[in-house]
Amino acid sequence: MTSFRPLIFLFLLLSLPGCAYLHSLDTDLPRQIDSWIKADEYGKALDTLYYIQSEHKDYAVLMQKKEFVQKCAVEFEKGMLKKGEQLVADKNWHAALQTYDYGLDKLPQSRPLQKARKRFLEKRERELNYLKIKLLQNKTDWLLNNAALYEQRLHITPNNRTARWSAKDHAEEVDKTATALVDCAKEALDQGELKMGQQCVHIAKQLTPSSDIQLGIAHIEQQLSREIAFRSRKLSRQGRQSLAKAHLALAKADFGQAKEIINKLPLTDGKNQKILAFRKELDETIQDYVEVNIVEGQKLYSAGKIDQAYSLWQSLKPLAPDNDKLDELISRVERVLKKLQQINDVQEKSGTG
Question: What mean pLDDT, rounded, does the chain reach?
């Protein structure tokens, strides 16, 4: 009978999502850990040490190093967070992004760094929006200040081709700027940034663009007003009860029930500010939960516990139906399980033959 065990083991090694398990088999792992510490590769070191078993020849030494790496990782994490916050405060946006990216490159599973980077991106987006609106306001001021001058020149020399073309270019620039402001308001509405949308509309109304663009301004202003009215409207009694139940479900980590409760609310309650805030909190909590358990599944997978990893990832699917990374991992493990089944079938046939 032909033995397929070496083949199965090799197949599993080649199909692992990372190298941590393979690194744990290094003959001189203590020295490798030291080199990673010098290079700030704390995540790689901790991932590798995760797989060290008590029968390892250097177990005692590696456990001491693991404790040291954990302390170093905490200090490294604190340092990156402090440096990033200071750079943001100084409005050194690019350097701040580089700091967070470096920190996550060396310690990719750090939740504080991941959250800090996410908050940074949101703050940077708000800064970019402020600059965009400021530029549009300046452009509007320039157009308004020059409007009378173009009209006067055309009035003095109505047959002057340059005067006519300049007035036409100015009118086109007014339409172009007003359109940009309408687009700005639409984007703000989609993102739920209603104050920003109102600012865009306010600036656009200072101009006198073409009639169709004026209709567009009026339309987006109405949409913003309706959305603001929805958000400021008080919750119904049912809405308040549902929100309380959803909070309780979230506290119990019953994310599915929390989502179901909130999704059943009528539109008048669903757009209330409190409900929207809860939705955001729920989405962020689910995202954190999914990401943490994706990593946990990868560790199980790398340790050869494929069925457990598969079950864990499958349990996450209803919470994150559009998570591409999760879909890729599930597809990969299904291919591995299928291949293993094929190998087992061949082995069984060889044994019976």
Answer: 88
